[in-house]
């Protein structure tokens, strides 16, 4: 009988550890003393959307210039992505007006990416440089004035 209890306890612990490692779900003991997994909402992605004067011109810039791919098209909306990054592009006649947010994209192997863009002739807004923060960065400005800063931490662990 003791072996059975130990096996059940070990199995319950393994299930609990697996569930915790895979998500932010929490295990809470119920009134019956048993562990119940509780699923909680979890944010998994952020896809900013840019208002653009010409979706095709912007798609060309992101795909041909920065190496993104079209991942979704729906009406006047196109999502482009590369690796874990996605951006939405929305046709808007007022795209040239108002505030333009800056996006900071953290990455690895920034020098390789920089060289890739240089070979394609992409115009930089700022040259590649290691900042005092130990972030190696450069930036580009898209056709509608949105600034994308690419950065990689190059300091010690």
Question: How would you describe this structure to a colleague?
Answer:
This protein has helices at residues 2-22, 55-65, 110-120; strands spanning 26-29, 35-38, 49-52, 69-74, 77-82, 85-91, 102-106, 126-130, 135-141, 147-153. The chain has 157 residues and is of the alpha+beta class. β1 and β2 form a beta hairpin. The protein is extended and about 65 Å long.
Name a few traits of the molecule.
3 helices, 4-stranded mixed β-sheet, alpha+beta, 157 residues, 10 strands
Order of helix and strand elements from N to C terminus: HEEEHEEEEHEEE
Q: What integer value in Å does the Rg equal?
A: 23 Å
Mean pLDDT: 85
List the uncertain runs. 1-23
Principal-axes geometry comes out as extended
Distance between the termini: 50 Å
Q: Could you tell me the number of beta strands?
A: 10
Strand percentage lies at: 35-45%
- Identify the strand order in the major beta sheet: 3-6-5-4
How large is the count of helical segments?
A: 3
Structural class: alpha+beta
Quick structural overview:
The protein is an alpha+beta fold and 157 residues long. The protein has helices at 2-22, 55-65, 110-120; strands at residues 26-29, 35-38, 49-52, 69-74, 77-82, 85-91, 102-106, 126-130, 135-141, 147-153. The strands form three sheets. Strands 3-6-5-4 form a four-stranded mixed beta sheet, covered by helices on one side. A four-stranded mixed beta sheet has the order 7-10-9-8, covered by helices on one side.
